[in-house]
Q: What sequence folds into this?
């Protein structure tokens, strides 16, 4: 890794520009949640729930209500609903969630629809207790529209050809091909064993990386394509004052709990030794989690 | 309309995040700007100058984003850039002597000539203000400069529309300051479009923007011409132009793309590593660590180790660029000829790229563009270069289609800017946006120190919203720096918020931030008020 002047020079900073101490806020003291679109199939929900909110729920529904209830995200399909009042959704879906995760990726039942997410409890009696409601989003359709404009009709065959030429069957396939050119060249020279170019050469400005560039034009007999990916979540809890590491790296506890989300690329073996130790370091507990994603074709 | 069969619109997106660190005498990441100046922006203007002198008519659309405009106009960065350029002139001058009689003589001369030319262009022709150059060609009608979100913000992930409104309004105001008229087009950061955001564009008189191809292909209703004609957004009538995949791939395909040619310059073999340490040390950063300095003497050569790369031959490489330009043009002629058989109007192919690819990564990309402009002008009549506005003047009637949410990132949506590696930022970005609007609503008529503080909060918010930070966290390039920048702006914003809330504004603190995070000197925080947003949206009720 290239040594960064910006971090190397912290100590000799000129006094004219303020240097902030401490970390960014861990919370803002308000119970709220926001829903963001990710792609036609996925959304991202994040939230903050204050202790006051939990206290309020306990006060309303009994001190032990939280211990006996399931915690869920209730996802509403509100497509075409002008004002959502909690009861007029087209459909809703409950999914279990861990509040301490503070965020969750939600798979959408259907692309192109409007969604709102509630966070709440379901009591043993089946009652839903709302903690916070998100904003509404509409996901992209992820396909060519079925709606045809009668003022702008075209010959069906010509339209299909134009669609193909436009790249309709190639969308989403692209990893950046240029990055591949650069990367391949780099790897080749590295493999060839030159060894006199440090990896820092990679740090040059690469604003294009990951921009979609289409894959090569499909062959006439090419099959349909499919794309899928995988992330895993590791979570748990430990004594609130324990020092916890995952794979040797410290992970901070929030109210004694932790969670870690990590990509799991095809063919990867994820080896995550989790270790908790006390202050003196003479008592430790370990859990070892290993995940293998087979190299599928 | 003439005898041409169709049109080609070339679009280059020039952008860097705002990076300025007056607190350090020497800062690594500022190099991105200096490198792009000397490898892309000045070389591009040099080509425009040459074409104009030779009487070659050309058309190009370019975004020069607000952060870039601000950096290009910043006295400190201009001074530092001049130092950077002078150092290159000096070193390349020494290199003429050192390489005399060696196989590197030709390439050493190339650098010396180019650096001196760019220095002359920058200092004597544009008087240290490179925007003068861009403005000159825009005023001549050859270059259409468009704006971008104020800090290249990622609009579809902004929950509060006040933030979308501010990204557009602050950018438009900055554009007027730099170019003396209103922007007619905009590049949405990362081509990220959210249906309805075009209302904020129209309010600034913006007539068009660009999309990734599926933004139009997945639009409703079906686009009759695919991506080979623009569409109008419903209600607003703002035109959307989509990227042509075929011409994008022509340039960048891993197998057949142009930049990989063995005769082109090798990026990874740099004098910063090759030369004797004591000789090169004055041209390195103050920490004395060997890094790329932007002078490279070898060609790609082939699949050989870096130490077996052959000497670069500038004349040979320029000839290859000419061949590639010819090939690119030929393929566009064939493409447009075929498309015109399927359409009842002349097709438009929109080719868009990051500007920094030309020159910085693909060194000969600048020559390629020069040859492409010349060949299109001299050698054929099938295709004609146009700007989006020129197309809209020829074809004012277009289909109304609601484009789909989309971006030009990997997988076509928001994955690059919203994933496990960077999703933590949105809690803070969204909360800060909400707090900004809260204060803008509460203090519509602030003055004095309070006004300065609120304006600085708006700058901090805009800077934390740069999509570059989330992007760099994903690619892993400069992850440490992009994380620090995000956190710094979050901390600064919230510190100012607390100071305002508790009526204990620290003038020294505000002054320090005004000096370092100095983007948008003319900003007015009122742009974040709910009233400003409602004034736009209420037009559609």
A:
């Amino acid at each position: 890794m290239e040594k960064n002047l910006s971090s190397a020079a912290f100590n000799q900073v000129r006094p004219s520009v303020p240097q902030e101490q401490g970390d960014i806020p861990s919370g803002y003291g308000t119970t709220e949640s926001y829903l963001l679109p990710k792609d036609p199939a996925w959304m991202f929900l994040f939230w903050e729930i204050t202790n006051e909110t939990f206290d309020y729920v306990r006060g309303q529904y009994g001190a032990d209500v939280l211990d006996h209830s399931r915690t869920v995200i209730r996802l509403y399909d509100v497509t075409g609903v002008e004002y959502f009042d909690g009861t007029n959704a087209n459909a809703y879906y409950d999914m279990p969630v861990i509040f301490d995760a503070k965020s969750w990726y939600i798979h959408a039942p259907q692309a192109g629809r409007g969604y709102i997410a509630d966070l709440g409890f379901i009591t043993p009696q089946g009652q839903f207790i709302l903690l916070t409601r998100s904003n509404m989003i509409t996901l992209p359709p992820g396909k060519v529209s079925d709606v045809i404009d009668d003022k702008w009709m075209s010959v069906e065959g010509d339209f299909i050809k134009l669609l193909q030429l436009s790249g309709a069957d190639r969308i989403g396939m692209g990893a950046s091909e240029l990055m591949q050119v650069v990367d391949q060249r780099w790897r080749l020279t590295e493999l060839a064993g030159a060894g006199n170019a440090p990896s820092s050469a990679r740090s040059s400005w690469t604003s294009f990386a990951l921009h979609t560039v289409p894959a090569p034009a499909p062959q006439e007999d090419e099959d349909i394509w499919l794309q899928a990916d995988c992330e895993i979540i590791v979570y748990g809890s430990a004594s609130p004052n324990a020092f916890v590491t995952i794979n040797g790296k410290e992970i901070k506890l929030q109210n004694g709990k932790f969670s870690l989300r990590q990509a799991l690329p095809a063919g990867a073996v994820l080896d995550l030794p989790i270790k908790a130790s006390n202050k003196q370091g003479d008592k430790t507990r370990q859990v070892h989690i290993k995940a293998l994603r087979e190299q599928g074709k | 309309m003439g005898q041409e069969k169709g049109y080609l619109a070339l679009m280059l997106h020039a952008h860097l995040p705002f990076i300025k660190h007056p607190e350090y005498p020497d800062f690594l990441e500022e190099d991105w700007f200096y490198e792009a100046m000397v490898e892309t922006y000045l070389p591009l203007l040099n080509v425009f100058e040459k074409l104009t002198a030779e009487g070659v008519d050309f058309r190009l659309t370019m975004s020069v984003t607000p952060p870039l405009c601000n950096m290009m106009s910043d006295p400190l960065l201009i001074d530092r850039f001049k130092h950077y350029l002078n150092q290159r002139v000096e070193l390349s001058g020494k290199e003429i002597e050192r390489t005399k009689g060696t196989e590197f003589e030709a390439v050493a001369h190339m650098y010396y000539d180019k650096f001196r030319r760019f220095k002359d262009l920058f200092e004597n022709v544009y008087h240290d203000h490179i925007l003068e150059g861009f403005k000159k060609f825009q005023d001549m009608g050859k270059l259409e400069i468009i704006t971008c979100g104020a800090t290249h913000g990622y609009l579809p992930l902004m929950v509060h529309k006040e933030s979308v409104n501010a990204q557009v309004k602050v950018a438009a105001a900055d554009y007027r300051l730099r170019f003396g008229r209103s922007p007619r087009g905009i590049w949405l950061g990362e081509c990220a479009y959210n249906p309805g955001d075009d209302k904020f564009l129209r309010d600034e008189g913006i007539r068009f923007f660009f999309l990734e191809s599926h933004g139009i292909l997945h639009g409703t209703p079906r686009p009759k011409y695919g991506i080979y004609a623009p569409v109008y957004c419903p209600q607003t009538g703002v035109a959307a132009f989509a990227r042509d995949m075929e011409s994008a791939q022509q340039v960048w395909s891993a197998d057949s793309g142009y930049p990989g040619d063995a005769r082109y310059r090798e990026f990874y073999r740099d004098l910063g590593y090759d030369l004797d340490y004591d000789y090169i040390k004055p041209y390195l950063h103050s920490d004395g660590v060997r890094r790329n300095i932007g002078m490279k003497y070898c060609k790609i050569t082939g699949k050989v180790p870096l130490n077996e790369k052959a000497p670069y031959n500038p004349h040979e490489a320029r000839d290859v660029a000419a061949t590639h330009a010819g090939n690119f043009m030929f393929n566009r002629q064939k493409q447009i000829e075929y498309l015109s058989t399927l359409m009842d109007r002349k097709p438009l192919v929109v080719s868009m790229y990051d500007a920094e690819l030309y020159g910085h990564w693909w060194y000969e990309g600048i020559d390629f563009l020069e040859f492409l402009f010349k060949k299109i002008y001299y050698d054929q009549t099938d295709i004609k270069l146009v700007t989006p506005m020129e197309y809209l003047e020829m074809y004012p009637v277009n289909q109304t289609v609601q484009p789909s949410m989309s971006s030009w990132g990997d997988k076509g949506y928001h994955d690059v800017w919203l994933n496990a590696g960077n999703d933590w930022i949105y809690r803070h970005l969204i909360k800060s946006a909400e707090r900004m609007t809260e204060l803008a609503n509460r203090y519509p008529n602030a003055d004095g120190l309070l006004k300065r503080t609120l304006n600085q909060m708006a700058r901090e918010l805009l800077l934390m919203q740069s999509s570059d930070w989330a992007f760099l966290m994903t690619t892993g390039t400069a992850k440490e720096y992009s994380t620090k920048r995000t956190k710094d702006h979050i901390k600064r914003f919230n510190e100012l918020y607390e100071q305002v809330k508790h009526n204990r504004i620290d003038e020294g603190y505000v002054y320090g931030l005004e000096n370092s995070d100095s983007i948008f000197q003319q900003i007015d925080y009122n742009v974040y008020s709910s009233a400003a947003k409602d004034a736009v949206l209420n037009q559609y009720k």
Observations:
- Residues 264 and 391 of chain B are 35 Å apart (CA to CA).
